[in-house]
Amino acid sequence: MTREADDGRRADGRPRVVLGVSGGIAAYKACELLRRLSESGHDVTVVPTASALHFVGEATWSALSGNPVSTRVWDGVHEVPHVRIGQHADLVVVAPATADLLARAAHGLADDLLTNTLLTARCPVVFAPAMHTEMWEHPATRENVATLRRRGAVVIEPAVGRLTGVDTGKGRLPDPAEIYEVCRQVMARGTLPRDLAGRHVVISAGGTREPLDPVRFLGNRSSGKQGYALARTAVARGARVTLVAANAALPDPAGAEVVTVGTAAQLREAVLKAAGDADVVVMAAAVADFRPAAYATAKIKKKDGEEPAPIALTRNADILAELSTGRPRAGQLVVGFAAETDDVLANGRAKLARKGCDLLVVNEVGEQRAFGSEDNEAVVLGADGSRTAVPFGPKEALADTVWDLVAARLPTGTERNSSDRV
Fold first, then answer.
1. Does the domain made of 16-189 have the CATH classification 3.40.50.1950?
2. Known binder of ligand: residue 299?
């Protein structure tokens, strides 16, 4: 048995996580979240509701966590579990969180061990909802979610996909790997304020592809990883996130609404639509400057003895400049990205002046540099003349720096209300 300090912390210093599991069919997916938390060095106590045990048994939770499992406030009553578990946690995450669990948490009910734990926890709390679309969209559920968010909890937006039976829609539990990333981000930020709470941010990611014929396209090396890192960190900081993803073969970030596109024209349409009520738009996608002037409806064939005909190109719309000069909402901030291969800062400064955005993230790119990697390095230039260097490191670190700079520039209080009335 592991010795604990007087204040309840583990003597080995491992962060303590409470994994609450409520009674939905997605309960089995929480096993993968538990595995990721345990393997990354967290001490996990699983607190399932009684109904959750109809889907995954107590023995499974105990074996995977290495800790005893209880669902009742009367078990081990001398240790006051309904108080101690929440008091000693560094994070509480509930996955899946059913409509019933969200309602009980929002109204402060304490009729089982999990809801008692939620009431005594003074650490960050994350809810990962899973339910049918109609239940998620019901006004009662929406009010309960708004209440929990107002109190500081992170309620992740559910994913869109296959539900139980033949139903499909919004309400699916996000990928456990992505829930884990949200938890890690929330724990890393500790008790810092969630400075994007109540904000809507739109992020583009990936690389557009411009079709030449049914099998070929003009594209680029962008993987979308930087844009997805921006989405994850924004969710952890409390934002409502719309991610417009172009050809990114990555799992949807938990909590983000994902709109998939292919071409620059499709990306422009999706971004402009989402930007209508956005506080911030971040154009991290690598958007093709040109597209083939003509599309061949059949595959272009190679002909013996003949050189291929030149491919005529035409310009795509400049989405970043369009957003910057025609902002649909007063006070909206626009952030651009500049992928450069030479004269990086000089080209970046010229692009910032030409595009008219508030911040421009300038980085050097190329084969095996930035594109497709887990790390990045950049300089963030501000329209106010500021310059912030971000050293080589994880793309999430660059993302957090971008959001730090954005949060410092967002209107607050009466200033924000005045902007909304313009």
1. yes
2. yes
